[in-house]
TrEMBL record:
CDD domains: CYP107-like. Residues 1-20 are annotated as: Disordered. The keyword Metal-binding applies. SUPFAM superfamilies: Cytochrome P450. This is Cytochrome P450. Keywords: Heme, Iron, Metal-binding, Monooxygenase, Oxidoreductase. InterPro entries: Cyt_P450, Cyt_P450_B, Cyt_P450_sf. The keyword Iron applies. Signal peptide: none annotated. GO terms for molecular function: heme binding; iron ion binding; monooxygenase activity; oxidoreductase activity, acting on paired donors, with incorporation or reduction of molecular oxygen. Belongs to the cytochrome P450 family.
Amino acid sequence: MTTAQHPPYRLDVHGTDQHGENAALRERGPVTQVELPGGLSAWAVTGHEELQTLLGDPRVGKNPGNWRALQEGQVPEGWPLLGMITIPGMTSADGEDHRRLRSLVSQGFTPRRVEALRPHVEAVVAELLAHLERLAPGPVDLREHYAYPLPMRVIGELLGIPEEMRDELHTHSGVLVRSSATPQESVAARNGMVALLGRVAAERREAAAAGSPGDDMTSALIAAREADDRLSEEEVVGTMMLMFIAGHATTLNLVTNAVRALSAFPEQRGAAVAGTVPWSAVVEETLRYDSPVAHFPMRFALDDIEIGGVVIRRGEGILASYAAAGRDPRRHEDAERFDTSRDPKRHLALGHGLHFCLGAPLARLEAEVALRELYGRFPGLEAVGETTPIASFVSNSVQSLPVVLKG
């Protein structure tokens, strides 16, 4: 049992070759120290078994008040990812606070409510396919014209965010999860999101006071606050931020990554198009093979804990390395191969334990419908040209995805 095996591995803040970097991290062991921007250190948990253990360990928390580096003033304002780590909401709360916040949001994502959204998701997909028809045969950026507008429309409408605000919010949220962001960009993005979503919350509160409450989730959060004082104003806006970011960015990357994988493995595309394997299997294998999130920051050791033969000291930060665990060869045979015939849910890409992604059913629904209908119309669709990774070790996808739309 050791506290450190190697000098910290400096993560590439630009995410240039995440899967190559993940392989190098796994070579160092399933739990290894990494260097974050600004010379800060943390632990990356890259092994599947070890990550599952971490995600279910009650000695690990999410409240950044438990991060020793933050307590000791080592993390400056504007540090990349600080704006995301400290959003007041479920992903930065522990214990009773986490249960309180999660119980309110979970009411909007019950299986019944998510399934009730299916006709709307299908209608949005049909609109987007009609748009692609006008752009065919391309090349066309599928990320911009298809993978992005679908989840953005759905989560924007669920939260009651006006359409004219959504692109700006998307830009801000992209900066918040970008490990290569400058301090000025990070602070501006956090402030920009708080201002825009605060305006939405204020409008919904005014409408409720005037006797015309909305039926969106922002109005529901405000109603809960007004009725029971269960949410502070900061928590309302923080929860909106979390729902907006998680509600579109994960699905955006998931659909993009699935199309990339199906282009790289045409036999798998053929099986899905032919109906030999269900589209749900394509979604699950994409989550394993090319997780939308690479290293999710951050968890904190609440006590000295031992994972994978390594001791993580109290107060140290921990990254949940979903993309690395998805290709752990100890868990997945021929892990570098995209294979839709695998056991469909043997991955951790949507979390595990108390912080399992509440929006997972909606993300799965959106991705499955999007892929089924896309390939139903363009069964020979092919990705073409060069792609550039998103400049972050948090998000795992590409900035654009040019494709040729073949019938």
